[in-house]
């Protein structure tokens, strides 16, 4: 028992570092346990699939890191910059280890934001982070040589910084702008996120200096990259593929008769017309971009001209003409791909080979010998990581990109069949977030609006500009979890602490035992929170006037 009449000892030694660490881990023990288990799953993945897994886009990224003197015409080089930074270590195993840490970092950001800024209890904040920690497809995506783990951390990092600070200085705005620039250079969809953040800050009536600093800090690196791109490809842009990919989006329904294309006056557009009737073109437009078929496809301009400024411009003009001429067909296709994201299962889309690249397979991966900027895809990978194994296959030495090792690989194959986030659950999370936005309509959605719009946009944008792909869904998941958790936080909060009765000097005041939410008890004066820091512990006990003994004050850790 501690009596209120006891005077606090100001010379009492502070707890040592180990004691403070144990207290911190105890307060957050539920999340720490989940984080440790998620880390263990990633170690098992690395043991089962070494050194990394590969997707068709992986080779372009590796080429950008091996040949850093020229930007890619197909996609921004942000992820290639990360590979270049790690290249001196010559290990794809290290690359995927860093990406697994990035994925765990996303979970830490979610937990910290919900726990500290919005006052959720430990179990509620941990629950919101579970999809990022344990979804098998999230773990598999981190294990691919792909930009998605980096992009996901950048997006969630930007949203976290914006929501964490009630007031933003221009310096913080500049930091967020730099992060947004890196996000855009990793995937082009990062630029629309800048627009969302600017609108959100304007709704919050943030100082114009902060918004201006953010926009300028984002614009400078992006403009510099576009100037570098122009020096290599001749046009001031970030890629030469946006028009081509939009052409792929419209290839399933574009009808040149409805578009009123005159071959005598618009020959370049007419060359892109598809002869097969729309009803016979299948359910994916990728073949009309990536594979030359029957001479009447995107490759009609010749081999090697796929992603040039001229072809990209022509393809973009064709796609815009198709959308304006057949708006209902376009909207129907976009809606179909958007709602494809919310299936309970995982239909095989856009084709079986692409679908398989998101699976933990019991197969060794032999890297293809496709042509690249200065060599071939397999030699680029071997140049980056000389430790890759080679083996004679059909009389030729081939590079092995992924070695499968059991029982670790078999465990992850079984794990993936059971532990995943169904699309319908993602839809429910979005509906909860939408309800949270509607409930805060007087504040234009409040803090729920930004993560909800970002999540919704990350699902809608590929459906509108490219085509549905399972990996495009995963960056939207943590943002949907944030929006849903913030919407429900009032249901999670504890009742306000009751004001204690007056204490007579000399009376004994019992001290409550430490639990997961309160942390260690501090006896004596407690420094008030900083002016900008939210007091998330709820109203504390009444402060007696000078000269009156007070009961010990217990503060929540979050």
UniProtKB/TrEMBL annotation:
Give the UniProt keywords, A-Z.
Answer: Cell membrane, Glycosyltransferase, Membrane, Transferase, Transmembrane, Transmembrane helix
Q: Which residues cross the membrane?
A: 30-49, 89-111, 118-139, 145-164, 176-201, 207-228, 418-438, 444-465
- InterPro entries, sorted: LipidA_mod_glycosyltrf_83
Q: Name where it mostly resides.
A: membrane
> Where do the segments described as Disordered lie?
520-558
Record membrane topology: Multi-pass membrane protein
Organism superkingdom: Bacteria
- Recorded protein name is Glycosyltransferase RgtA/B/C/D-like domain-containing protein
């Amino acid at each position: 028992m501690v009596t209120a009449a006891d005077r606090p000892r100001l010379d009492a030694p502070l707890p040592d570092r180990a004691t403070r660490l144990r207290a911190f881990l105890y307060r957050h023990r539920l999340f720490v346990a989940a984080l440790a288990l998620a880390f263990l799953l990633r170690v098992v993945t690395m043991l089962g699939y070494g050194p990394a897994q590969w997707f068709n886009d992986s080779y372009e990224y590796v080429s950008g890191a091996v040949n850093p003197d020229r930007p890619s015409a197909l996609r921004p080089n942000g992820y290639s910059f990360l590979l270049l930074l790690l290249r001196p270590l010559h290990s794809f195993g290290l690359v995927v280890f860093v990406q697994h840490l990035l994925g765990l970092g996303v979970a830490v950001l979610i937990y910290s934001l919900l726990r500290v800024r919005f006052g959720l209890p430990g179990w509620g904040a941990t629950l919101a982070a579970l999809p990022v920690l344990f979804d098998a497809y999230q773990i598999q995506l981190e294990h691919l040589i792909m930009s998605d783990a980096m992009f996901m951390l950048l997006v969630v990092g930007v949203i976290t910084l914006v929501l964490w600070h009630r007031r933003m200085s221009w310096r913080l705005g500049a930091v967020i702008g730099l992060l947004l620039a890196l996000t855009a250079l990793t995937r082009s969809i990062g630029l629309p996120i800048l627009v969302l953040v600017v609108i959100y800050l304007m709704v919050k009536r943030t100082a114009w200096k902060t918004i201006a600093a953010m926009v300028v800090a984002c614009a400078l690196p992006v403009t510099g990259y576009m100037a570098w791109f122009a020096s290599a490809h001749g046009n001031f842009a970030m890629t030469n593929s946006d028009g081509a990919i939009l052409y792929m989006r419209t290839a399933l329904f574009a009808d040149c008769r409805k578009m009123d294309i005159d071959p005598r006056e618009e020959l370049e557009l007419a060359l892109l017309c598809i002869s097969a009737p729309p009803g016979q073109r299948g359910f994916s437009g990728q073949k009309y971009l990536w594979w030359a078929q029957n001479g009447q496809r995107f490759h009609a301009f010749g081999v090697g001209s796929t992603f040039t400024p001229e072809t990209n411009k022509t393809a973009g003009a064709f796609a815009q003409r198709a959308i304006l001429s057949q708006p209902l067909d376009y909207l129907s296709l976009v809606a179909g791909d958007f709602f494809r994201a919310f299936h309970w299962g995982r239909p095989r889309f856009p084709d079986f080979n692409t679908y398989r690249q998101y699976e933990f397979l019991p197969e060794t991966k032999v890297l293809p010998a496709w042509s690249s900027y200065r060599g071939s895809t397999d030699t680029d990978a071997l140049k980056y990581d000389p430790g890759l194994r080679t083996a004679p296959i059909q009389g030729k030495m081939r590079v092995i990109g992924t070695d499968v090792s059991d029982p670790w690989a078999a465990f992850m194959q079984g794990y993936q069949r059971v532990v995943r986030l169904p699309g319908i659950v993602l839809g429910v999370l979005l509906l909860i977030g939408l309800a949270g936005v509607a409930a805060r309509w007087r504040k234009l959605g409040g803090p729920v609006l930004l993560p909800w719009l970002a999540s919704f946009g990350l699902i809608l944008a590929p459906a509108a500009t490219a085509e549905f792909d399972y990996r495009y869904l995963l960056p939207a998941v943590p943002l949907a979890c944030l929006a849903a958790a913030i919407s429900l936080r009032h249901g999670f909060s504890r009742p306000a602490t009751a004001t204690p009765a007056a204490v007579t000097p000399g009376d004994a005041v019992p001290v409550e035992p430490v639990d997961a939410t309160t942390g260690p008890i501090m006896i004596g004066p407690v420094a008030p929170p900083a002016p900008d820091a939210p007091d998330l512990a709820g109203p504390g006990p009444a402060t007696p006037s000078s000269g009156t003994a007070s009961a010990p004050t217990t503060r929540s850790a979050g």
